[in-house]
């Protein structure tokens, strides 16, 4: 494991990337005991359909909280991929949604049916962000499965726990298959 | 108006400071057209009861997204006040909750019945964060009332719009009275 991970979660405005960033940050910071800074930008340069949240996770204190070279990128739409995939580390893990991101200009990208499984298995497309977090945890180990589950269940609206647990399981499964 | 404002919203874990930070950031960034970076930290140094969210609002691009000297501080608890009021600008606006923050070691602090009005007038203490945002908008002008209302209503759960509008009005009123 590296000392410092920079993670960028990107998609369109309604896909819950900010919520996903906060769930991941709380998982790593509160439950895994890491130092975490989570941020999002708004404004002219952040306009348009694409939206992103960034999480920096470190074993040490974080003095420079701006992401500089992304280690883990999630892109839920083609626009997000094109806008936010330029500053990846050479050994970065890039995960995209196979339904919305068709055109990949880099090799080695992991394409997963995140939104498709959310629709077909959970019946709720918005929960694709949870499936994505679980896949990221499984593939990269940047956060523990237990911490992710605790953070998620402390934040979701009452009555949706079961669907969220189901989304986690789907994401862990997709992550395992991707690592094979 | 200055070019760059650094705002810190602090309180205990359950008081909705992160949500307030995101509502304020979206109001200024999406609806007022400013450049905004919103962030929160987790981890060993962020442990304990106190929680904070920071928002930087600027007319220009934000190259250094770490808060350095706070222009506007909200402290909803005594612990948050003690932990997060040390790096204020000399001319900072400091707003505290009059119910939970009793012991002030600086002059000129604005003490408002945020949680008390939330309980007594709205019947919902958690909505004190919205009252606080409205008071901040009214007192400092860092975000427009219209932008704050639009951002808030786009984020709150369905069915709670009326209580949130009521909380905004209470906050605007408290802000006006504080400025007299």
Can you describe what's shown?
Two copies of one chain form a homodimer. Chain A has 180 residues and is of the alpha/beta class. The first copy, chain A, has one domain (4-113, 141-159): Pyruvate-ferredoxin oxidoreductase, PFOR, domain III (Pyruvate-ferredoxin Oxidoreductase, domain 3, 3-Layer(aba) Sandwich), CATH 3.40.920. Chain A is 41% helix and 25% strand. The first copy, chain A, has a six-stranded mixed β-sheet with strand order 2-3-1-4-5-6, sandwiched between helices. In chain A, strand 4, helix 2 and strand 5 form a beta-alpha-beta unit. In chain A, helix 3 (114-122) packs across helix 4 and helix 5 packs antiparallel against helix 6. The longest helix of chain A has 19 residues, at 161-179. The first copy, chain A, starts with a strand and ends with a helix.
List the helices and strands and how they pair.
Two copies of one chain form a homodimer.
Chain A: E1 4-12, H1 17-31, E2 35-42, E3 50-58, E4 70-75, H2 78-84, E5 88-97, E6 110-112, H3 114-122, H4 128-140, H5 145-155, H6 161-179
Parallel strand pairs in A: 1-4, 4-5, 5-6
Antiparallel strand pairs in A: 1-3, 2-3
Helix pairs in contact in A: 1-5, 3-4, 3-6, 4-6, 5-6
């Amino acid at each position: 494991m590296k000392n410092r991970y920079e993670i960028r979660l990107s998609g369109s405005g309604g896909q819950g990337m900010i919520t996903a960033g906060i769930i991941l940050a709380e998982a790593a910071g509160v439950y895994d005991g890491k130092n975490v800074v989570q941020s999002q930008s708004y404004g002219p340069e952040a306009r348009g359909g694409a939206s992103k949240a960034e999480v920096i996770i470190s074993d040490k204190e974080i003095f420079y909280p701006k992401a500089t070279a992304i280690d883990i990128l999630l892109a839920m739409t083609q626009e997000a991929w094109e806008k936010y995939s330029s500053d990846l580390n050479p050994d970065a893990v890039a995960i995209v949604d196979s339904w919305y991101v068709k055109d990949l200009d880099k090799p080695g990208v992991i394409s997963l049916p995140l939104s498709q499984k959310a629709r077909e298995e959970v019946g709720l497309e918005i929960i694709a962000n949870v499936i994505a977090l679980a896949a990221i945890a499984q593939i990269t180990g940047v956060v523990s499965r237990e911490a992710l589950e605790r953070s998620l269940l402390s934040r979701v609206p009452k009555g949706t726990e079961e669907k969220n647990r189901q989304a986690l399981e789907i994401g862990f499964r997709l992550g395992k298959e991707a690592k094979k």
